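Translate structure to sequence.
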């Protein structure tokens, strides 16, 4: 879907940067691909495409890959949900968000990670649901899907110091849910670095609260509390920008993705690089007793 690459185009972009590797297969058998570039003792990661409709995140991840931060190993996993990405392409972006967002078994992969600290699912809107038809269906149990299980195994093996997970289209920074003072302060520093890196007057705000938040099975919460990784969700392309593009979007796809992405990609890729560089000045996230606890009988 012009100007966005299909999966073959994404693979070619990875090959142009380095040697892609396969870390698993999707429900429909598509390869889960990544690439690691650079050198240094620490690894930082950029992921995208966990929701198939959010192509702008994939394009931004590839832009970071083309100009990686120095002095560190950069791990880029541009399409975490290739089946959803391919389905969005096949539908021409015309279809319900839930159909294009989820994997081939109808699971929202970003609600399928183990909840740390023994947390239990809640009925807070968008926190995930047990209803298979819903856009945020969390699946039968944590890491039930081949895409999330493979990603978790890779992350546990590589142990990145920091990770930016790219989405669309809220124009916000959604950090891992934290309440310890040093964690809260660390994410405040990183949020400022991202906004400064964007280089615009109105950078993306941080959406976080030390109270009233809940665990939802999202990737960044699992990364922070279980892996000891500084992790955030960056919602590329803001609601305001989306509304300016189309007050009434002709399809779901063009609500989530800009028709002319170059300026937005350049701006937000610069923010991601600044965030990753700033993370190198922070100590590793401490692994606290109890954080690994997950619901009895669940995977992970």
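Result:
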């Amino acid at each position: 879907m012009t100007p966005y690459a299909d999966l073959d185009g994404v693979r070619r972009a990875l090959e142009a940067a380095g040697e892609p590797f396969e870390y698993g297969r999707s429900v429909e058998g598509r390869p889960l691909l990544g690439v690691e570039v650079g050198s240094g003792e620490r690894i930082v990661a950029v992921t995208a495409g966990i929701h198939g409709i959010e192509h702008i995140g994939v394009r931004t991840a590839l832009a970071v890959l083309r100009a990686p931060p120095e002095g560190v190993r950069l791990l880029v996993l541009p399409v975490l949900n290739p089946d959803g990405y391919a389905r969005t392409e096949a539908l021409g972006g015309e279809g319900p968000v839930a159909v294009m967002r989820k994997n081939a078994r109808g699971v929202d992969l970003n609600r399928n990670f183990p909840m740390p600290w023994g947390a239990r699912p809640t009925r807070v809107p968008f926190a995930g649901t047990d209803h298979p038809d819903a856009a945020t269906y969390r699946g039968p149990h944590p890491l039930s899907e081949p895409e999330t299980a493979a990603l978790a195994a890779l992350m546990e093996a590589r142990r990145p110091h920091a990770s930016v997970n790219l989405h669309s289209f809220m124009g916000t920074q959604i950090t891992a849910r934290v309440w310890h003072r040093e964690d809260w302060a660390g994410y405040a520093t990183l949020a400022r670095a991202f906004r400064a890196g964007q280089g615009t007057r109105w950078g993306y705000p941080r959406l976080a609260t030390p109270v009233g938040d809940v665990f939802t099975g999202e990737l960044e919460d699992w990364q922070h509390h279980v892996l000891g990784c500084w992790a955030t969700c960056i919602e590329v392309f803001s609601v305001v920008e989306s509304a300016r593009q189309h007050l009434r979007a002709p399809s779901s796809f063009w609500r989530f993705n800009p028709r002319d992405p170059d300026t937005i990609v350049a701006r937000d890729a610069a923010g991601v690089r600044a965030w990753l560089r700033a993370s190198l000045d922070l100590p590793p996230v401490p692994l606290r007793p109890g954080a690994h606890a997950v619901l009895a009988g669940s995977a992970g």
